[in-house]
Amino acid sequence: MNNTSQMMQRVRIEHHGGPEVLIQDQVPVPEPGEGEVVIRLKAMALNHLDLWVRRGVEGHRFPLPLIPGCDGSGIVHKIGSGVDSDLLGQNILLSPGFSCGHCDQCTNDEDPLCSEYGILGETCDGTCAEFVTVRAKQCLPKPENSTWEEAAAFPLSTLTSASMLEKARLKNHETLLVIAGTSGVGSMAIQLGKARGCRVIATGSTKEKRNKILQWGADEAIDPHEGDWWKRVKALTGGQGADVVFENVGEATWSQSLLALARGGRLTTCGATTGSLVPIELKRLFFKNQQIIGSTMGSTSLLRELIVPFAARELVPVIDSVYPFKDLAAAHQRMESRQSIGKIVITF
User: For residues 159 and 210, what is the distance between their CA atoms, to the nearest angstrom?
Assistant: First the structure.
C-alpha cells in the first residue's frame, strides 16, 4: 500500500457487533496538530480490547464511529508544530496510552490514573489504518534488531504484564502462577517472571499450549480443565500456593485462582474475558492476609524502560499469526476462537 494519492485505507466501526461490522474504506491521510505526528504504520497487533470495542460493553459508551486498534509500529511520516524535526522519518513503536502529562498522577508516573487518560482505538481513532495521528510523546524508538511485527506486538501486552507484576511486588524466588499462559499478557508474564528469578507455573487449555508454555521457560504447565486444578498448584508448592497469581480471565478461573493463592499472597488482575462478576470469600481473604490488586495498562516511562530488554532480546513477544490488513475480520475470528498462542499481528 502507498500514499501517492494522499489517501489511506482504514477500518472503522459504526455500530457494535460481530466481525461483519468492521468496515474498510478509503479516506484522506490525516494532518498532525500541534505536538502531534502522523505515523505510516507498518504493522499493528490485536488485543482483547479490540474485541470489546467491536462487540460493545454494557454500560460503556465508545465514541463511534471509531477506528479500532491500540498497538502499532511504523515510520514518522509528518510532524506538527512544536515537534522536534529529528523525529521525522524515525522508526517507532507506539505507546498505546496517553494522558495530560502534567497532573500529579502523570508526574508520578501513574499515567492510567490521570483523569484525561485514554487509549488508542478505545477513546480515539487507533491503528487499524495505514496512517494514524498520535501525540509525539507516544512515539518510542523501535529496536533495530526487531521486526515490524514484533514491535507492533510488544507495547500493550508487555506494559500491562510488567505493571501488574510491579504492583504485585513480585520478588526473586517467589512462585508466580500465570493464568492463560499463552495469551499475549500471559506469555509475557512468563518471560518477566523468569527474568526475575521466580518459579513460574502457568495454565494452558490444550497440550499444544502447555508444551509452548514449557518452551518459553515456565517450570510447570497445568491443565485448567482438570477439575480442581488449584490443588495441583498447592501440590507443586508443598501445600503453600502461589505467592502471586496473574489473573486475566475472570469468571471462569477466578475462584480457583484465589484458592491457589498462598498466605500473604497477591492476586493481580487486568482482564475479564470470561465475565467480570466474581465471588470473593472475605474471611479467607483477611485471615490469610491476601491482596487483590487491579491493574490497567502502565506508564509510558515504564514502557520506555522495557524497550531495553526488548532490544537485548531478553523479552520477545510471542506471535501467533500474521494477517494482511484486508483480512482483519479473519484475524478477529482467530482471536475469538481462543486457539491463538500469543499475539495476532496485521501488516500493511
Answer: 24
Q: Which of the 8 DSSP states describes residue 203?
A: E
Give the residue carrying C-alpha cell 479516506. 27
276 contacts: CB under 8 Å, gap ≥ 6: 250, 251
Structure confidence by residue, pLDDT tens digits, 229-270: 999 999 999 999 999 999 999 999 999 999 999 999 999 999
Other Cβ atoms within 10 Å of 306 Cβ, number: 23
Parallel, antiparallel, or unpaired: how do β-strands 220-222 and 175-178 relate?
unpaired
CATH 3.40.50.10310 matches 159-294: no
In the chain, pLDDT over 90 holds for what percent of residues?
Answer: 97
Mean pLDDT of the chain: 96
Is the model's pLDDT at 206 over the cut of 70?
yes
The three cell numbers locating residue 266: 497477591
Q: Tell me: domain 7-154+317-347, CATH 3.30.1490.20, correct? A: no
**Selection from 190, 138, 203 nearest residue 318 by Cα:** 190
DSSP H or E segment with residue 221? strand 220-222
The ranges of the chain annotated as CATH 3.90.180.10 are 7-154+317-347, 159-294
Phi, psi of 66 (to 5 degrees): -145, 140
Give the DSSP H or E segment for 166.
helix 155-167
d(CA 313, CA 218): 18
299-322 pLDDT, tens digit each: 999 999 999 999 999 999 999 999
**pTM as predicted:** 0.94
Per the CB < 8 A criterion, the answer to whether 313 and 290 are in contact is no
d(CA 270, CA 142): 26
Residue 74 backbone phi and psi in degrees, to 5 = 180, -160
Which DSSP string do the residues of 59-99 spell out, in sequence order? Answer: TB---SSB----EEEEEEEEE-TTS-GGGTT-EEEE-SEE-
